[in-house]
Structure formats: C-alpha cells, structure tokens
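Input record (Table S2, row 397):
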Amino acid sequence: MDLDVERVRACFPALKDGTAFFDGPGGSQVPRQVAHAVASTMGAGLSNRGTVTRTERRADEVVLGARAAVADLLGCDAGGVVFGRSMTQLTYDLARSLARRWGPGDEVVVTRLDHDADIRPWVTAAEAVGATVRWVELDTGTGELVFDRAVLSGRTRLVAVTGASNLLGTRPDVAAIAAAAHDAGALLFVDGVHLTPHAPVDVAGLGADFFACSPYKFFGPHLGVLAAAPALLETVHPDKLLPSTDAVPERFELGTLPYELLAGTTAAVDFVGSLASDAEDRRSRVVESMRQVERREERLFERLLAGLDAIDGVTRFGRPARRTPTVLFAVAGRTGAEVHQHLATRGVNAPAGSFYALEASRALGLGDTGAVRAGLAPYTSDEDVERLLAVVAEAAE
Ligand SMILES: Cc1ncc(COP(=O)(O)O)c(C=O)c1O
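Output record (pyridoxal-5'-phosphate complex):
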C-alpha cells in the first residue's frame, strides 16, 4: 500500500492554515486521532492504576496498552518499556543509576555527533565517579562518525551513540558499533529520538541494549520512552520511593504516569501503522508503513537537496551516505536567525540553531548558533518543498 500524502495530511488540523512544517525534527504535528485519544482518556474517568474500580482498571489498561504499542513500534519486549517525561530525563536517570557500578579506570564512549541528551548525562555520570570519557569524532566533511575500535577497551562500560543525527541526518552503522561494543563487554545505548520517525526500528536488530525515543517526534504527546530487555532492567537499581513498587519496568517510572499521554502514545503508534499498511497485526503495519515513509521521504529529499544545491549562496553541511531526510544549511550573507525569520513570513517553519547537537555544531565550525535545519515528515507535500526552495532562494538574493 502506497503512502497517500493527501489522506495523511487531512488528519492534521495544524496543516489547515497552510503552514509548511519543516520543523518535524524538533517535534511533529499531531493528528486528530492522537488529540482525541488524549482528550477522551481524560474525559472518560481515571483513577490511579488498580484492579478494583472501573476507572482504576482503565488507568491500568492505558499503561499496559501503551507499553504494548511501543513494543510493536520498536520490536522490543513490552515488559521493558519505561515511560518518562522526556528522553533527556530518562537518560539522566539511567546514567546516574548505571554509574553506581562504575569507578576510576572504567570508560564510557560518547560521540561528537550526538544530541547533548546522549552526551552530557554520560559525561556527568562518568565524571561523578572518576570514570574516563572517550570520544568518537565526527568527519566534518561527510558528517559521518569516525568509529575506530581503538576507542574501546576491556574497561569500556557503555557506548552511547545516536541512531540518527537530529542535526545532519547521519545514520551511523549502529549494528557494527553494537558488535564492537559487545565484543569489548560494554553495553550499547542508542538515542533513537531522530531515527524512530523516519525508519522501521528493530531494537534487537540494531544490537541496542537500551533504546530511547520520544513520542512527540512521531505524532504523539510530549514524553519519553526507554526500552530495554526486562532482564537487563532487573540488574539496574534507580533511586525510588520506599512505598513504590520495585517491579520492572515500574521502578524506573518516578511518580504517577501521565495516563492521558500514554493513551495518546498508543494512538500515535496506531497512526504510524495506518500510514501505508492494512496488515493484520500492528507490528507488521508499523514496519510496512515506515518502509513506505522511508521510500517517499528519500524521493522528496532528493528533490530538496538538488533544489538547495541549485541556489547560489546556499551551503549544505554534511553529506552522509545513509541519512534521514534532515538537512542543515546556511545562506551567504544572512544569519540563520534571519533566514528562519524570513521563512516564517512566508508560512514556512524551518528554525536555525544547534538543536542541542552542540558538539557537532561546534565541530562543524558553526559555534553555538548553528544553521538552518529543514526536515521532512510524512505530511510534507511536494508543494511544501517547492515553497521552501522558492523562499530560500528569495533569502539568498
Ligand atoms: C536526537 C535527539 N535526541 C534527544 C533529544 C531529546 O529528546 P527529549 O526532548 O525527549 O528529551 C532530541 C530532541 O530534539 C533529539 O532530537
């Protein structure tokens, strides 16, 4: 089944005013189905999770339903799906918990490509216990990681790498990095926040011990997800309140879960599965749909890149071999903020910044202000791309 962009677009109330949204890498727009799931869950009556009253059972079903949905999205075990306020919060919490087992002489590997949410929590946690941080550097010409096994040793405890760069779109060879990390006896944490909206994900296939993503990047509400094998989570002991359960995955979820946002997350996964598939089971629908999304975005992205390259004064950063449809560029004689402003006057949303991939932005020579970023989403139309190109050309005049 092909992805019917007009059918997809009709589901998004935010598209009605004609805005062309290229800021999906910062957070996607939300389809009606997701907003409805959030509102109807709040309106239906909810209590704390339990088994006695109807409203207690509803809360319980919402939580278990969302874990099952994320398991179908990522190809992981529902019993190892942890929800939190954001990927950043979950990563900080996990880093602090894991670091209790690290000490001087132990090593943690981070990359120069990653969003800071997959760098700073590890750096801070390592420094707190006297462990050493090692860096995988970025080839600033290609935008690819320069991964060399020499960065690993018998003392490497954890490798943290992105599934896809939210700045340049680069998709590192995660499976190869996983194999090397596992050979060294280290765990692999994959930041899947930017990968998940653009490709089918198979956590086990990637070799990720931990995989994080954020539903608000794939049509869902603002919260974060951490997925791992339940048996691995059993070995990790986060700080928790005395009366709260010690069961996995609940012991990683501090306080009361946002039930309505979990219902929205389930609706978001269902929506992903409905994009371009009518297969019987949800996992197959998600995988088939995301293959179609990848195919369509690749095609549209080629047009976007060719169009940008044809505009005098536009510089693109990074030319990775394997990438998401996300491009970083600058316009000669204009700051990124000016281009962002100019696009906004024409109803085109494409902000400028480092987008918290601060190490990468600095390595590229773009400092802390970065450049303009444009990313495609399943609701991006051919006309949106032509409009972006026309308005960038105006900005470059
Ligand atoms: C690649 C990547 N990692 C991590 C994050 C942080 O996610 P969250 O906002 O859920 O903390 C983002 C957010 O933009 C991101 O793009």
